[in-house]
Amino acid sequence: MSFRLKDVPLLSRSTIDRAEHVRLDPEALREGWGKAKILRVDRRGKVRVEGTELVLDTAASVADGPGEAAVFLGVVDGSHLWAVRVAELDGTLKDLRGLGGVDDFTAELLSTAYALLNWHDRAAFHGGDGTVTALARGGWSRLTAAGEEEFPRIDPAVICLVHDGADRVLLARQQSWPETMFSLLAGFVEVGESLERCVEREVLEEVGVELRDIHYLGSQPWPFPRSLMVGFAAIGNPEQELVFSDGEIAEAHWFTRAEVRAALGAGDWTATQSGARLLVPGSISIARSIIESWAEA
């Protein structure tokens, strides 16, 4: 049985014009600042909300200009959007995971802001010679004193739904997760490795299952801190012994489609279901999109 994603994953939906031509024009960035909106993000990744809405401040109320801290996210309805890291925020604070059912704009705004700010937090010095770097292109690159340019780092990772070709799917629980929380198998791509080979290796290392019929489903940014999740499905043999050789997985089980549908109906990892055997990831994760698509196929 093969299937496709029924919807574009939440964090992959695009509503913001990234306006690369504006990034390259310092004068345009300065001119747009007066009418721009800015998202303030604290050190824990939390932002101010009122009800279910993000609070976007006027950029001019935060600073006289972009400076060396704010990052340009794009343009919406003719206004520039920026984000900046701050030490503390007052009011009602939530992060992307805690917001619940977010709209496409909020999802893209937060995921892009998180990834860029997380990179800048770690990129103040050049990795080769240790010299200080400065923000450039509205925050989409950094420059050394010698003019060498570096761009935001992205860490590719694969995530795979392993099924038996019929009515069962293999879900796993990491050592640090509560006993009812299960998800798909995933791992980072290694140097010199294709995405498909990474899928084979990670599943074999984590649960000892050999795969066939690996096929691509879709991808999603995952800004924790700056990953790109590349989704796959593959067929495994449920009769093969599960072996947890790399120490990451505490347990894994083959669940039926009926069990997965019941778990989807119960909510997600934030649900408190007494006696529940299985809870699955929330709506912002591509894991949820893949599991839903398989369950409805």
TrEMBL record:
Chain ranges of the Nudix hydrolase domain: 152-277
Entry EC number(s): 3.6.1.22
Single GO MF annotation: hydrolase activity
Family to which the UniProt record says this protein belongs: Belongs to the Nudix hydrolase family. NudC subfamily.
SUPFAM superfamilies: Nudix
Name of the featured protein: NAD(+) diphosphatase
Family annotation (InterPro entries): NAD-cap_RNA_hydrolase_NudC, NADH_PPase-like_N, NudC-like_C, NUDIX_hydrolase-like_dom_sf, NUDIX_hydrolase_CS, NUDIX_hydrolase_dom
Catalytic activity: a 5'-end NAD(+)-phospho-ribonucleoside in mRNA + H2O = a 5'-end phospho-adenosine-phospho-ribonucleoside in mRNA + beta-nicotinamide D-ribonucleotide + 2 H(+)
UniProtKB keywords: Hydrolase, Magnesium, Metal-binding, NAD
Lineage, highest ranks first: Bacteria, Bacillati, Actinomycetota, Actinomycetes, Mycobacteriales
Cofactor(s) named in the record: Mg(2+); Zn(2+)
Classification via PROSITE patterns: NUDIX (PS51462), NUDIX_BOX (PS00893)
Organism: Nocardia lasii
